[in-house]
Amino acid sequence: MKKDWPCAPVSLQNVSPNAMRMARLLRMSRRDVLLTGMGAAVTYGVASGAAGAADAPSAPAQGADPVAAQFMAVSRLLTDRPTLDLRIGNALYAGIVQSDAGRQAQISALHDLMSKEQFSSATAFAAAAEKADPALKDAIHDILTGWYRGVADGKVVVYRSALMFDITKDAVYPKTYATGGPFYWTTQPPEVDRPTGHPALSPSKFVVEPT
Asked: How far apart are CA 25 and CA 7, in angstroms?
């Protein structure tokens, strides 16, 4: 190993602590200088490569289910929303497809219908889908139940992010407990106006879900 660069001797009694630290820093060997330069070059190269990789467009995942993307497009139209959470959508799609062997083909049929015509609203799209194939009504029910209630294949996929809470999320958060006093359910609830709109789908059989 080569010798360190020469440094003028100093009297430790006549220098300040800052000067002592500076003197130690100046006693840097040529080897340290070389290693420091090499480290900086490697760091710059890695950073440049990472920046280039970040700017490059990401390739689609190998083996991705194309119907999953169709499910998201159909869901955006049925919920009248420009964007939906992709992670929640993938979980809902997996549960819906698992619940019925024919759901995947029905989702593709809904996407084909959506691609052929321009629908002004979810109501118009749902009505046209049931008219084209009455079996598509059940697929629409599963999709809307998944997004608004957070349930797919009889299992809770998401709770707080379910769309049924979206209207009041700026004021009231969904809770897991009742906010009323004892026996609050025995009082007469307030009257509400009867809805004036018409359902997009035909009536379905009432199903009592297990609790």
From this structure: 11
